[in-house]
Design goal:
Rossmann fold; 5 strands; binds ligand CA2; alpha/beta; 5-stranded parallel sheet; globular
Length: 144
Amino acid sequence: MKILIINGPNLNLLGSREPEIYGSSTFEDYFSSLQFKFRDVELSHFQSNHEGKIIDELHQAQDNFDGIILNAAAYTHTSVAIADAVKAIQIPVVEVHISNTSAREKFRHHSYIAPNAKGVIAGFGLKSYELAILSFLDLPEKDA
Ligand code: CA2
């Protein structure tokens, strides 16, 4: 099983600011712990602050991965282009958020991505990513 985690804008700052909302761990450290925990899953990670780069990565992923975990960050609430890319690709995408977006400002309540995602996991801190991996584990794998 090959899973790609895509993180959107500002998530490269995890661990350095706003720990009360996003925790105090860097994504790199958390990602290492995920790799250790899910040794049978081939996990990859991509982060970009640029909408087009996220779209390119989504397009390329469909030939190389069984599924995608996408935290599009603020683009979740603004990007029709990323939503279209999620709709266009043939592999399942699980939308993930660290914070409970429904409990925050109103503009974070709407997701352009959710209607085309397999599901949405939000509000469990970095553990949201782990829950998303678990959601993939009974899916059929893409041929190597
Ligand atoms: O809760 C999430 O995972 C979000 O996708 C995070 C986005 C926010 O715009 C979404 O509404 C919910 C923001 C990511 C910013 O990440 C930072 C991390 C550390 C310090 C500052 C920003």
